[in-house]
Amino acid sequence: HSLYMLRRQQYMHQWESAGRHVLGEEKFEAMRTMDSGGPAQRQKNMIAEKYLRITQKEPESVSNEAQQQAYKVMADRLLHDWKDDEEHSKHLLKVFKNSSRT
Questions:
Q1: What confidence tens digit (pLDDT) does each residue in 57-91 have?
Q2: Taking the CA atoms of the chain, what radius of gyration do you get in angstroms?
Q3: Which residues of 70-98 are buried (b: 16+ CB within 10 A; e: fewer)?
Q4: Dihedral sign (CA 91, 97, 101, 102)
Q5: Is the pLDDT of residue 15 over 60?
Q6: Pairwise CA distance, residues 59 & 18, whole Å
Q7: How many CA atoms lie less than 13 Å away from 86 in the CB half-sphere?
Q8: What's the DSSP call for residue 80?
Q9: Of 35, 59, 76, 95, whose CB count within 10 A is highest?
């Protein structure tokens, strides 16, 4: 990861310069500040919804409890990708405890 961050910093100026040249300043800044609602976020939401639908409405398509829990974890990770690991782990424990009661 640290090597990735070094490379990212090393070439950041070139990438931004090329992006501004190709897209124009306005479109480039709009793309950089797109927090939600962009194509990647919409795709992640669609996949997360699919995983949740499988675990909640189509449980017969899941072969076992472990696979069902894995789908729940994947959906939760997609929906909450900016949470730090400790906070996210606590959230997952709460989800698993609640799902085991049903």
A1: 776 776 777 777 888 888 888 888 756 667 667 76
A2: 19
A3: ebbebbbebeeeeeeeeebeeebeeeeee
A4: positive
A5: yes
A6: 48
A7: 0
A8: T
A9: 76
